[in-house]
Amino acid sequence: MTVTVIGAGLAGCECAWQLAERGINVTLCEMKPEKKTPAHTTDNFAELCCSNSLRSDQLENAVGLLKEEMRRLSSLILACADATRVEAGGALAVDRHGFARLVTRKVRSHPRITVREGEITELPAQGEVVVASGPLTSDALAEKLQTLLGEHTDLHFFDAAAPLVSADSVDMDKAWFGSRYDRGTDDYVNCPMNREEYDAFWQALTTADQAEVHGFEDSQVFEGCMPVEVMARRGHDTLLFGPLKPRGLDDPRTGRWPYAVVQLRRDNSDGTVYNLVGFQTHLKFPEQRRVFSMIPALHSAEFLRYGVMHRNTFLDSPRLLDRYYRLKRDPRISFAGQMTGVEGYVESAASGFLVGVETARRLLDMPPVDFPQETAIGALGLYISNQSVTQFQPMNINFGIIPPLDHFVKGKRFKNAELSQRSLAIIDRLKEEVL
Fold first, then answer.
1. Helix (H) or strand (E) holding 202
2. Which structural domains are found in the chain, ordered by start?
3. What is the pLDDT of residues 296-310, one digit of tens each?
């Protein structure tokens, strides 16, 4: 009894691990190192192509709740993320390469997981199959999926990654270490701009040359990873309420908030590499150097990686999948990860977790676990399978898809905290059954 998992990203690794931990043999298929997509740079599994942040780790935030649910249920991805975390205030950020190496080592060393390298161009004709090949699925496999699923794969959006700079190239005479409202430790490098500097930067950003991306339009970007130049084109002050907002950042030289602040977040545990927070982009490489070097603290920045944009394809999941991510017309085939319409690193891993758990239970003749909509894991599965959704779009976990409380709680933060406690109480009751 062996399950084939296609793709060793976050979802595929989590799925394979959960299956193997339940006594199921897994063949994990990964096309790297034989073949890479434009967004991949290493041969490791679970490579983080965009940000190194898994977003908020607070229970007042829905993704913080999802992380805690997965921690309590022995998620591989969360265990590796916690083991390789770097300071990022209230967020869970990781050493990008250390995280991927740890996931790879654990997966490859599991006695029930066999890794098969090379591109998969056909789905196995028999046996349980999990397609977790991601939004950057190879053309050959995507063509086979198109034949299998028909018009329901013809959906896409564009995603982008931010540049990385070397820490020692940042001019610290024009920047300072600190966190917003002094929460946490000095987790970010803050690069201030005054009004004149921001005006010049905004003008250059909105008129800079963009790289050619076939079929790209501003309206097709995913809101959670919007290129900074697209955001800037929405208005002069848009960035000041987004990635460049100065609120809570007191410049030690003046004791006041600057007009605008670009934040750099540590990208590795050594603190030698930083990424530009919120600076996903698809500007041409020379333009990135020219425009981003207008930020005073980055006037001599060494860019270790430029930002890139790539097309992400996802399924019309409400028409195709059930709440356990199984293909309705052929339940031996399941899907996991961003291609199902869950958006975000943690959400992708959560879908792989649920597919792994439920596939194992089915093979062991056990009933499925009922993760209700009151839990973040359950809410995601019910969102992607909700046939009443008329225009399906990728979705980060949020409290809007979780049922409200049955009583009034004053204040959004307190209300969200109670929603999280309700969910975690359910998870604790399910824990023995799941594990």
1. helix 195-207
2. 2-158+311-434 (3.50.50.60), 164-307 (2.40.30)
3. 999 999 898 888 776
Give the C-alpha distances (Å, rounded to integers) separating 51 from 143, 159, 172, 306, 354: 29, 11, 23, 12, 24
What DSSP line would sit under 340-392, residue for residue?
Answer: GTB-SHHHHHHHHHHHHHHHHHHHTT-PPP---TTSHHHHHHHHHT-TT-SS-
Phi, psi at residue 53, to the nearest 5°? -100, 135
Condensed to tens digits (0 to 9), the pLDDT of residues 208-253 reads 998 765 444 444 555 556 889 989 999 999 999 999 999 999 999 9
Q: pLDDT per residue over 250-287, tens digit each? A: 999 999 999 999 999 988 877 888 999 999 898 999 99
Q: Is 21 exposed, middle or buried (0-12, 13-18, 19+ CB in 10 A)?
A: middle
**Helix extents (H) in 44-189:** 62-72, 76-83, 96-109, 139-149
pTM, two decimal places: 0.77
